[in-house]
Amino acid sequence: MTTAEVRTPSATPAPSGPRSWRGAAGARLIWLHLRSRRVPTAVLTIAVCGGVLRAALHWNWTFHSGLLVQEVPMIIEAGAAAAVVVTTHSPFGEPERTAGRWLPYLRLGTTLLLTGLAIAVLELTVAGASLNGGILVLARNIIGFTGIGLLSSLVTGGLLAWVLPMGYVAFAEYALNEAWVSPWTWPVRPPADRGAWLCAGLAFAVGLAAFTARGARTRLSDNS
Amino acid sequence: MTATAPLDRAPRARAAAPLARSGRWARVLRLEIRRSTVLWAIPLLAALFFFDTFRTADGFAPIWTVRSSVINTNMIEDFGPFAAGLAAWVGSREGRRRTGDLLTTTVRPAWVRHAAALGGTLFWLLLTFLLAVAALYVDTARQATWGGPPMWPVVVGVVEVTTFAVIGFAAGALVPGRFTAPLAAIATFLLAYVGFHAALQVRPGTPTYALLSPSTSVPLGDVGVFYHVAPDLAIAQVMFMGGICVALAGLLVLAPLFQVSYLRGFFSVAGRVSRWLCAAGVALLVAGVAAAATAFALTGTARLGVSGWDIPALHDAASDQPIPYTPDCAGTSFTVCLHPAFSPYLSSVATALQPVAAEVAGLPGAAVRAEQVTGGYGSVSLQGLRLPGASQVSDIAGTPPVYDFVSDNGLAPLWGTPAIAGGGFWQSGFQQEFLIAFAANPASFSQTAAQQAVITALMVAVGSPAPQFGEDMTNGQPTAGATPAQIAAAAQRFESLSPAARHAWLAANLPALRAGHITLAQLP
Amino acid sequence: MNIELSDLTRKFGRTTAVDRVTLDAEPGVLGLLGPNGAGKTSLLRMLATVLPPSSGTLRLLGRDPGAPAARKEIRRRLGYLPQNLGYYPSFTVVEFVEYFALLKEVPPHMVPKAVAAAVEKVDLGPKAKAKLRTLSGGMLRRVGIAQAIVNEPELLLFDEPTAGLDPEQRVAFRALIRGLGQTATVVVSTHLVEDVGAACTEVALMSDGRIVFRGTPAELTARGVGHGVGDAPLERGYTAVLAAARSAS
């Protein structure tokens, strides 16, 4: 190679390759992104939550009556949501944020994928068992807790984003004991409560939008 | 950078003296305290304490043992998960921040660093916890009329929070991944809730191991009022949780052994940990497991006594003696006496009982006074759960007849705030219980139709609303032997009699009425 | 001798990272050069008592680090700056250095003075109370140097110490380690030959886990005369020695 070749830019843009190459590259990018966020471990963690929920129903940890029928599943659903929100942490920091335009889409896709997976996995594990409120309450709680966690991640960072959803669970337990009916007690409202769905959905929508645009707060030298 | 003259060095002087060691550790601990992650979680803990624990306690009767029961239930559910999760976060710090290599090259072994980091975390957790307890006790002191703050619930609570923190820290130190902290928090949440309700299921004749649950309620009833609360169970819980902490501490001391060099195997790595440290770690592990196992075995022997759950090996018979007290009394023609701990309810009880007592005064078996007595222990039903509770029911007995009522008084228990006791619903419930003891069998869950009609008539006669009797259905048939409408009609007939006529009829027919031999048709 | 290595080997699986290295070092500054993957960091980690050797003998400050008591004594006199420095973002500069001073058992009454001196030596006095998360990469590196020297070690190990430092700071760092090398053994693992040339009294060149050159910077320079590729005499000596080592193997 001569310097003349280096100094004279090519007249035509470099070919981007056949569509199959681009598809393969896209899939590779997605897979690497998922691995960097420890998504495989998150899926395993969600599966563990599902197993615990199944065990809780099978061995009567909810005692079939009283407040535990709602409380125990809600705690486990928050656990699944926590597994989703801790994947918001990026180990790369600034270099990743400045490396092109795909990161917001990857964030959005990863979060939607994991949230949907959490709902599906937990529903599968309780299939045939009697879950108070059914899939609707399960889905609503996972969506709502994930939304709170996503919002929290902008302040606390992804690794500590589980704290606020846990706090909300504790608050919801009290609301259940006191039989409060406001929409913002959505984790303990009946499945058909529209206000509860609105609140949970809003938390998720706002959290997802903010996280997609900004990403979780990152700190250097944090890598796990 | 400047190359100044090196500081004076005296290797012998730098050999660590014990005082220097403790001063050094104190400074490391101070650093950890100042920079603890728990600090920013304190507002959340304070909010949870206020909304959950404090407001719940405020709705209870202003009795020390009742109010303090929230320490081992609501407070643990508020503090425990965050203690475990945040401690796991701190424990995983060296793994997350990649400071392992660097810290390995320092003199102090890993357990010193871990102790300091855990100490810094526990400092804020326990400080917040104790401040919250103080707020609870100050509020109770302003309302309670007898007794003093019980300390065993606080001790158990402190040990519970510490145990959760140690478990979380150990999990974070051994598995420094991003999922460890939230999983530790969730597991603690579940343990607190499920364990608590498992403990509530325990009653005489069932296995009692669940009483070791991190969140065990004080038995319902008036324990701690008429009798001391036996510390047996608290001691066993502290032993159990303390054993877990000690065993985990041993595990952390031995943790470097688990970092196996794949080539040279376990024994070569073992050579890199001093022998005494190994021995100490093993000793801690064994001692901790032994303590926890002993506590587990002891709790299996627990039985219900007058002072709550007794464990024979730990029980001091002196705590079975009743606590002397001078009752608070009101009324002259019909005296009502309550234990001074329940003084806030005195005027409500007197207001409720005096009219109905006057209505039946002079009749055979009519009480001349009312006195609160201890409930004893059995089980009651609450939210579908069988709970330890009063075994004795309110009844009229003795010569002259005295209405002995218990704090767990069926329709009108002395549990809620005194303001609730001032309400019409509570007062009519108390009257109903009195009249059930007078005109029916208080040990039975249901009354005959005639008994219900007479009780209804007597309550209406003193101006109270007609009481509600639950229909006791077996085989689809009302065992009261009549419909509510028929009972109401008979009650109206009986109430419309003159007081003298009612009095005369009752004087002649009370024994038969109490025995259940009177039918609705036989009522005038 | 502060460092005595004899046939020191370290393997990771089937990979031999350090291959029968024999090396002695007295007080002074020893530069450790070599390409990526030569085994410099593995050697340094063994000297730092982080890794045990797979075989061979290792004596540091006259002691065998395999024994726990001796290892403790070595670490009391050791300063180590790894290539990737982890830190706690919420600590301030002073707190971070103090933390290590305490863990290294600097007498408590001497800690404040030692910490202040270390922070001044790396020119971070104005930033003493700043949180680590607010510092630049170069400043963090200097914090790492400060924690390594706070206990006035007799054995100092630096792995890429000047990464992120500006030229002025690099000059100051070289002066610092020259001063430290008067009384301590300083081992500096680096890719920057100018650091070696300016600060080191001796150089060891590693390639494929082995020491392929040991001598003074002048001797290394001489090896490159007429043979090596590079823009500076030391670089030419470096490439010449490496080329010879590779052709011999």
Structural key phrases:
heterotrimer; A: 224 residues; mainly alpha; globular; disordered N terminus; B: 524 residues; alpha+beta; 5-stranded mixed β-sheet; two-stranded antiparallel ribbon; 18 helices; 11 strands; elongated
Describe what this molecule looks like in 3D:
- The complex is a heterotrimer of chains A (224), B (524) and C (249).
- Chain A has 224 residues and is an all-alpha fold.
- Helices cover 66% and strands 0% of the residues of chain A.
- Chain A has 9 helices and no strands.
- Chain A has helices spanning 3-7, 19-36, 39-58, 68-85, 94-97, 103-125, 134-156, 163-177, 194-214.
- In chain A, helix 6 (103-125) runs antiparallel to helix 7.
- The relative contact order of chain A is 0.13.
- By secondary structure, chain B is of the alpha+beta class.
- Chain B has 3 domains: 20-320, no CATH class; 325-417, no CATH class; 446-471 and 478-524, no CATH class.
- Chain B contains 18 helices and 11 strands.
- Chain B has helices at residues 18-34, 42-58, 64-68, 74-91, 93-97, 100-104, 110-143, 152-174, 180-200, 232-254, 265-270, 275-299, 346-359, 418-421, 424-439, 449-461, 484-495, 499-515; strands spanning 303-305, 308-310, 328-330, 335-338, 369-372, 378-382, 385-389, 395-397, 402-405, 473-474, 477-478.
- A 5-stranded mixed beta sheet of chain B has the order 3-4-5-9-8, covered by helices on one side. A two-stranded antiparallel ribbon of chain B has the order 1-2. Chain B has a two-stranded antiparallel ribbon with strand order 6-7.
- In chain B, helix 2 (42-58) packs parallel to helix 7 (110-143).
- Chain B is elongated.
- The longest helix of chain C has 16 residues, at 233-248.
- Chain C is α/β, with parallel strands linked by helices and 249 residues long.
- Chain C is built from 9 helices and 9 strands.
- In chain C, the strands form 2 sheets. In chain C, strands 5-6-7-3-8-9 form a 6-stranded mixed beta sheet, with helices on both faces. In chain C, strands 2-1-4 form a 3-stranded antiparallel beta sheet, covered by helices on one side.
- In chain C, 57% of the residues are buried.
- Classes of the chains: A mainly alpha (224), B alpha+beta (524), C alpha/beta (249).
- Chains A and C meet through loops of A and loops of C.
